[in-house]
Design brief:
It is a single chain. This protein has 1 helix and no strands. It is mainly α and 16 residues long. This is Signalosome complex subunit 7a.
């Protein structure tokens, strides 16, 4: 799912 990947990218940005 595109949305799932989007959330993954956002989560990584927040962690960094």
């Amino acid at each position: 799912d595109i949305q799932g990947q989007d959330l993954s990218a956002i989560a990584r940005t927040l962690q960094e």
